Amino acid sequence: MWPLGHVAVAYLCYTIATRARFDAPPAGVPALVLVFGSQFPDLVDKPLAWYLGVIPTGRTLAHSLLVLVPLTLAVLALSSHYNRSEYGIAFAIGALSHVLVDALPALWGPNESATHLLWPVVPVEEYEQGAPSILALFQESLGQPFFLAEFVFAAVALVCWHRHGYPGLKPIRTVFDRVWPTLG
């Protein structure tokens, strides 16, 4: 899944969680933490695999539940310690939804695999000819129904985000106003 799809799925999952727990939409800073969490596995794995070559693929270390679950528990404990539990929950939903959604194609595709969920205990198939280019990955994605579904998720998430008052924008604007006060 592409970054837009990961953010969309994470936002929809987090919206359900905040509605169930608080009967309220997501708050600003937790929404930003959610966005970071939804990208976290790729922010770690893609550079390590594609540019540094220290892990076998772009879905190994931070995509592995054997690594991500303990890390998420540590983030939850740390955020709770600082009375910011919602930040930890947002990160957990973002990061865990990312790896689980990446594993979904394995349910219906014979050429797909979810072995990354248990790496390094279960080996992953390494790149045959080196790391793929973003353009090659995009072209490969164009014919897949899962790729098109990302836009549906993104549209639904965007409608929800609008209805919720765009949580996350206010903290960003506050930072910009402090850094560049003359632009406002």
CA-to-CA gap between the ends? 36 Å
Q: Provide the helix percentage.
A: 55-70%
- Structural class call reads mainly alpha
How many helices does DSSP assign? Answer: 7
Largest sheet: none
Give a count of the beta strands, DSSP E runs of length 2 or more: 0
How many structural domains are formed by the residues?
1
Summed over residues and divided by their number, the pLDDT gives a mean of 91
Report the β-strand fraction as a percent range.
Answer: under 5%
CA-based gyration radius: 18 Å
User: How do the helices and strands follow one another from N- to C-terminus?
Assistant: HHHHHHH
Which shape, going by the Cα principal axes? globular
Model regions low in confidence, pLDDT < 50 over at least 5 residues: none
Describe this structure in words.
- With 184 residues, the chain is an all-alpha fold.
- The protein has one domain.
- The protein is built from 7 helices and no strands.
- InterPro entries: YdjM-like (IPR007404).
- It comes from Natronorubrum thiooxidans.
- Keywords: Hydrolase, Membrane, Transmembrane, Transmembrane helix.
- It holds the Pfam family YdjM.
- One of its GO terms (molecular function) is hydrolase activity.
